[in-house]
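Entry 14. Ran structure prediction on the chain below.
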Amino acid sequence: MTTINTNSALEGMYWDTEKKVADKNNGALTQSDFFALLTQQLAYQDPTKPVENDQMIAQMTNFTMADGITKLNDNFSSLAQSMSSNQALQASSLVGRSVLTQSEQLVFTGESLSRGQINLEQPADNMKVIITKPNGELVSTFNVDQPQLGKNEFAWDGTNQAGETVAAGLYNISVEVSARGKTENVPVQVYTPVSSVSMGNNGNGITLNLLGIGAVKLADVLEVSYG
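Output, structure tokens:
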């Protein structure tokens, strides 16, 4: 009895997926495809009912518009990449400088004053800055003289209540404002040195890595300082 090996006979009947040509357009129709469709449409049209001139012009216009939109999208993509590169270059120039952001943490470098500001929207009789360690231990308190509406700047020299210079590091900061016998906490903005810049992977945008505090969005920066 003769045995036929069907496997070898069928080998050539299967598609070789490894040799398949990649679709560079990801299945999208190009202008050439549109014109090919138009040619086929004209070739197979009913001779008794030919395509009207205005219909052909309308189709040609649609094809041209589709091609124009594709090119416009490509141009916008290139523009977005260019803007991102330019923004990254500008952001890199901030390394070594200090930026103002809203924060509940204050960095003392041990080499310069720690600065910040409080924006008042209502009149206040007294404004007190409170600085504590991360464990909640009180380090220093001081008043901001003559608080006024709008920007009120302050600076901390890195000394504690006894006048001793504390270690460089990260401290918590809060601000209490008193008006007509009522006391409340208000947001505080601090200057922090920029240690590095992240170019923004996964669509997160450009972020600044602040010394001790961590990453903040470039859009959250309120002001830039040399010191």
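The chain has a mean pLDDT of 78. Will compare against last week's run tomorrow.
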